[in-house]
Amino acid sequence: MNEKTQRYQFDDVRVDPQTFKVWRDGAALPLEPKAFEVLVFLINHRGRLVEKDELLDAIWKDTFVTPNALTRVIAQLRRTLGDDAKEAKYIETVKTRGYRFIADVQVENGLTDGRPDHLITTTPASNEFESASATRRSITPRALALTGAGFALLLAVILSWGFQNRFAGDGQIGVLRTTQITTTPGLDLFPAFSPDGGAIAYSSLRNGNFEIFVRQLAPGGREIQITSDGAQNLQPAWAPDGKLIAYHSRNHRGVWIIPAFGGVATQLTEFGADPAWSPDGEWVVFQSDAPADLNQAAFSAMPPSTIWIVPARGGAPRQITKIGAPSGGHGAATWSPDGSRIIFVTYDIGLSEVWSVSPKGDGLKRLLGGRNHLFDPVFSPDGKYLFLSAASGNFRLWRQRMSPDGLPEGEMMQIANTGAALARHMTVAPDGKRVAYSSLTMSSNIGSAPLVPNSFEAAGEPKLLTQDTNYRKNNHNFSPDGKTIVYNVWRMGADDEVWLVDADGANPRQLTTEPAVALGWLPEGDQVALSRRDARGSRFLKVDVTSGKQTPISRQNLDVRMGRLSPNGRQLAFNSRASGTINVWTASLDDGAIKQLTFDREMMGFPCWSPDGQQLAVEMRRGDDCHIAVVPSGGGSPTQLTFDRGLSWPGSWSPDGDKIAFAGLRDGLWNVWWVSRGNKTQKRVTNYTKPNIYVRYPAWSPRGDQIIYEYAETTGNIWMMELK
């Protein structure tokens, strides 16, 4: 018998899939439609683990949602049913994976007026064949008649839903075939179709530096290397007439233009990246800040990046968007086919939205939001669709139908689920039937650079402390005795988890089962401070590393971004955009007092405390470069320590309080460095030589014998999909 002709009962709760209602003791319980569907799905698959992706695909099908939607629905179900996540009676959480319905269920068949004609009691492990046989024996003529009517009603509803979904999203998108365009073992990315669709320009690391190549797509077509200056050239974009290619030079800075089949390059702008030509070829739009790294899910831009345009023949660039309007870093800009709008994405920690603006800078409109990790939107040639990639559970490609006035129509439709490989930097062929993209994968683990204690000299080659496939590992902090490391694990489409591992990489273990971010160790050394976000902001707790018991340490709710706990455990230093740009603030966990420490007009953030708590090392932006600066933790003028071209991102201090470990980008390469606060000397700690490797969050052991950090490497090639 079809599952929708059955009713279910567990404890005093009754569920009717035909009428979409749930009762307890005869009283209807309020449930939104998606929550009801999730409940029925879990009941029908009771006794086994239902993975999150399985639920998302079954309930939301081709509608774009993040796993947060599922988390919210499960929470509503538990509230309505009177269930508890920690002591589950009905819905058991299998941490990081999914859910299991564990209650004994009675199945009612032959539905009439709400009273069962027959009950079959099943446990989660019951035999499905026996249940089905008993169900068939219970059918009465009256039940058959009503079931037929129910089927008719259900069919009408399904057809109605199907019609509405098709109208809203223009139907399911089919993929005829997928073809790998490049096969180099390193990293190929940023593809761009030529205006005639016969070639793809892209950036390749095959010779040790990123250079621009053009590959003809016809069978036997040749490949040409366009640039060869070793300047880490990225993000090629064809002019509409096919004669020129604009690109970003990571080492030479700014946007450059070169003949499409080789020649002398000329600089168009002295700053900025990710160029895109207007349809008439008269303008080039670009973002003011270059991308910091090329990891799989790297944001195209971070604050304070904005959108600019420049005449394609040369001239003064003109700013289109303003810092903070809208919030986040503005990047990944593209033109509508008629040239009337510029589409771009805003990025920040926990933020990703698609906006449009006119080339004059007016008419700012928010198009897509409320979903984390949207990437690289691009129009179809006829302007009817916006293609983009997103991270939600697994990685996916999507298409959004656009109205004639440039607004989204209906739901986004999924093109493909790309699994563990994220499709980035999409480009659409002029025929609208082919989509090329970078298929990127990334490994991320905790690296460790051994040091001679108290000499700050290398004591051997770096090694990896972890060797697993979890997506990101960051926010590393040593315990006060240097024996244990706390860190965050982020799996794409899931919430942050807090883990522990011994300083030598042994004994990794999960510390929290609920989403949380580690802020640092409390002075006693047996507890870790956590931040847990909800709709009101961040709540602060401490967790005992032995028992796992959690207790609040502050009742206030703050919008804390990248918070760090002071050595005495009484203050938080964090980023805030309350003053317009990112600056450093502190919050007392004792009395809730909040204080702004820096007042920079560009950016000053990502603080880390000195061992005595008297100073904060911060990241200070100046143009395209970021430097290390130090500011008194009670407030005062910052002192700049580094002046090199590139990026310098602070991580932690040496035990003696003189040196600051930082992730440094120099000449296109990321490595761990330190700088002395006393004499401003610098020393490189690691010696990575591949531009597709990056390091983050260096943490100095209190013992002085190692610096740990996130080590990540991105690989991938160019692929092409042919659509039906």
Provide structural commentary:
It is a single chain. The protein is mainly beta. The protein has 3 domains: 3-169, Orthogonal Bundle (Arc Repressor Mutant, subunit A); 175-441 and 717-723, TolB, C-terminal domain (Neuraminidase, 6 Propeller), CATH 2.120.10; 454-513 and 581-704, Neuraminidase, CATH 2.120.10. The chain is 10% helix and 45% strand. Strands 10, 31, 32, 33, 34, 55 and 56 form a 7-stranded antiparallel beta sheet that branches. Strands 4-3-2-1-8-9 form a 6-stranded antiparallel beta sheet, with helices on one face. Strands 11-12-13-14 form a 4-stranded antiparallel beta sheet, with no helix packed on it. It starts with 6 loop residues before the first strand and ends with a strand. The model is unreliable at 110-171 (pLDDT under 50).
